[in-house]
Please model this.
Amino acid sequence: MANTMKAAIAEEFGKPLQLKEVEIPQPQAEQVLVKLAVSGVCHTDVHAADGDWPVKPNIPFIPGHEGVGHVAEVGSHVTHLEKGDHVGIPWLHTACSRCEYCVTGQENFCPTQENTGYSVNGTFAEYVLADANHATKIPQPLESTDAAPILCAGVTTYRGLKETHTKPGDWVVISGIGGLGHLAVQYAKAMGLRVIALSRTPKKLELAQELGADKTINVSETDPGQAVQDQIGGAHGALVTAVSTQAFHQAVSTLQRSGTCSMVGLPPGEFPLSIFEVILKGIDIQGSLVGTRADLREALQFAAEGHVKPAIETQPLEAVNATMERLKKGEVNGRVVLTMS
Ligand code: NAD
Ligand code: ZN
Model:
């Protein structure tokens, strides 16, 4: 095995990633080294490389947290994974397993968690280190490219939909039909929900319709709050994936009494919330952060069984900067998955 690898490195916030040859890291006792086949590009990677969130990563670092590949080396204490295993590398690199959140199955809120491609090096590289307790086996017959977007976009929307507390037959609004949103439409349909997709882009609304959305609304032409209230008397739930503060405000206005707005999109900033509306309508505002390992297993299983299939465009690792520029402009339809060799 060579001792260097290709990696895309964030060296300065707001600047293109630098493609370099760097040393292949060695696994610690509880880790595995994974030879990556692919990595999805999430909008979170754009926030990471721009350093636009309140908590910033330490530069230099390798972004990326939707990696899939095969175990290349196993740390001395790892007994449940072996060389050659097909695994995914999610955002949650590790959690303490002792805090109140970890012991109650909410490890996604562990205050001392490490995050792949943010606080530790990520998957825009030929190899990555993973905590063996957080690398996840890819269920058969899922291919690496189809599995990659599930590692973040899939699990985040799957969990985010659960947080709307909707049930089969209910209406859910999905705002933003990007990497997360186009999977959200499919998970929602698989859960028996009726879906209204909101986007500014006709092409994305077409994709939502192909994936099973019952209604679509172009938010640059139509006020979605008014339209959803007029058409169905308000939605039971809303899931906001859009990278726009205005979308959060709009999503709340689509809800019926007692509806829940599950927030997953992470534009830096704030949005106005009418105290009167929240109280009189009994609205729930619910934040949702990626998901637990159990959520991830379930989300992958939905994909393995064919209920959810990411719309994918593959690109070489070298196209990472162009891909992040396209994400900023809202020009990616579905998910771009980078191939490593
Ligand atoms: P993406 O760029 O693929 O998709 C975002 C979509 O929002 C785009 O299609 C864009 O056109 C659309 N959009 C922008 N403004 C809009 C508006 N006003 N109304 C409707 N649509 C609008 O990004 P992504 O990878 O899907 O990520 C989306 C967001 O979710 C990012 O902010 C990311 O950081 C965040 N995220 C959060 C979590 C979490 O745990 N909560 C996990 C993963 C990603
Ligand atoms: Zn992500």
Summary: The pocket of zinc ion (ligand 2) is lined by residues 42, 44, 65, 91, 152 (CB under 6 Å). The chain has two domains: 4-152+291-339, 155-287.
